[in-house]
Write a structure and sequence with these properties.
63% of the residues lie in helices and 1% in strands. It is mainly alpha-helical.
């Protein structure tokens, strides 16, 4: 939701209306832009809270129709906001393809879906919560820091899934009296590997308990790998979240002098975590 204005894009000409809208909708460094974006986030939280109240029977009977009407009026407002954002963006195509732009688009999709698509509409409403989350720089920086580790994370999670399927079928073969089907065995293996242990399924035989012990040990190691990857990436993000004002190397904002060129960091360093440049 932030407009990054670098020296490279200052040459892009914006008409006066687009300049004003760009400042209001994207530039959170200005007072009007900051107030506008916080007002939108507040409205989203109100709509999400109203939708949650509508799931309670008492409030549904009292205010159900009013909540639905309110939601649709807000959706119309979001639709207008999305059109204005596309119009005001410095790079329209980039904004529309960006994660923020896609979330903004998904937010207004309930206007298009009509009929008995209750579940789909409910799921699309959750996009508003995502929009609130990505509005905070810390959350955006967290996801940006994990980009380089997606393959590794997918590999570890894929291994966990394969082990769960294999062990789930084995425990079903060993204890068909406890697990009525292989899917229940897979569910048990995932819960056991994560060391959550809901207790809805418990091995009864010695072989099943031995299998569970091995699964717990492997689960601790596998999930520790996931935690380690995320911790390293977040640590690098925290320690290299700025750029030297002279040589532009990544470094921690705490440095008074750049370790690469020894230039004094007397100005505020620019973040090297890029948002969706619009």
């Amino acid at each position: 939701m932030k407009d990054i204005k670098t020296e490279a894009d200052h040459h892009i000409y914006l008409s006066p209306p687009r300049k004003i809208l760009n400042m209001v909708l994207f530039d959170t460094r200005t007072t009007v832009g900051n107030v506008t974006n916080w007002a939108i986030l507040g409205l989203i939280m109100i709509v999400v809270s109203a939708a949650m109240l509508d799931t309670i029977d008492t409030y549904h009977h009292l205010w159900g129709d009013s909540i639905i009407r309110f939601e649709y009026w807000v959706l119309y407002g979001f639709a207008v906001e999305y059109v204005l954002r596309v119009y005001a963006a410095r790079n329209r195509w980039h904004y529309m393809r960006s994660f923020n732009g896609m979330v903004d688009l998904v937010t207004i999709l309930p206007l298009i879906i009509v009929g008995d698509a209750f579940v789909i509409v409910r799921l699309l409403r959750l996009a508003r919560v995502i929009r609130v989350a990505i509005s905070f720089p810390v959350v955006r920086s967290l996801f940006a820091s994990l980009k380089g580790s997606v393959r590794l994370l997918m590999g570890v999670l894929g291994t966990i899934a394969l082990i769960s399927v294999m062990v789930g079928n084995v425990i079903y073969i060993l204890e068909p009296q406890t697990y009525s089907n292989a899917f229940e065995g897979v569910w048990w293996s995932v819960v056991t590997m994560s060391t959550v242990g809901y207790g809805d399924f418990v091995p009864q035989t010695a072989a099943g308990k031995v299998l569970a012990t091995g699964l717990i040990m492997s689960g601790i190691c596998m999930f520790a790998m996931v935690t380690a990857v995320i911790s390293v990436k977040v640590g690098r993000m925290i320690n290299n979240s700025g750029n030297c004002i002279a040589c532009h190397h990544s470094l921690s904002p705490d440095y008074l002098y750049c370790p690469h060129c020894a230039h004094a960091q007397v100005q505020v360093m620019h973040s090297n975590i890029a948002d969706d440049d619009v």
